[in-house]
Amino acid sequence: MKEPPFPTRDDIITGWIDLCHSEEGSDEYEESFWSCMLLDNLIDNFPLDSYKVILDILARDNSYCVVSATGMSLLVHLIGSHGEEVIDRLEHDVRHNSDLHNALEGIYNQGASDEVWRRVKKLVYTIN
Fold first, then answer.
1. In this structure, are residues 99 and 59 in contact, taking their beta carbons and an 8 Å threshold?
2. CA–CA separation, 121 vs 20, rounded Å?
3. Rounded distance between C-alpha atoms, residue 47 and residue 53, angstroms
4. Angstrom distances, CA of residue 60 to CA of 6, 10, 102, 111
5. Taking CA 13 as the corner, what is the angle to CA 105 and CA 62, rounded to the nearest 5 degrees?
6. Where exactly are the structural domains of the chain?
7. Potential cystine with 83: which of 43, 90, 100, 112 (Cβ 3.0-4.6 Å)?
8. H helices within 1-113, ranges in order?
9. One Pfam family this chain carries (predicted)?
């Protein structure tokens, strides 16, 4: 019996970038939407691994649409669900990564603790 193909890390990154660059409702968007679902699952179950994938996405494509979508979707979910696990890494990495800083600029709080959210907002307003 042949095993079904599973997407690689590179496939996931490419799928997300393709999704960000496509028009909602288009064939390309529908064909790439799996990456969003898989990334949401990765964030829920493997927050530190998903954080590394987010950094890889931003390193590969720092266009406005990818940076803003990554912030408004993936980082909002990650910080809201696992802020305590990733805030120290965010504070370290944002100082050396302007694309990560830009992705954080437009996010909103969706479940982060008051302390984590205070630290995130401090990053947005004090680093650039």
1. yes
2. 25
3. 10
4. 21, 10, 15, 28
5. 40
6. 9-126
7. 112
8. 9-21, 27-32, 34-45, 47-60, 64-69, 76-94, 98-105
9. DUF6869
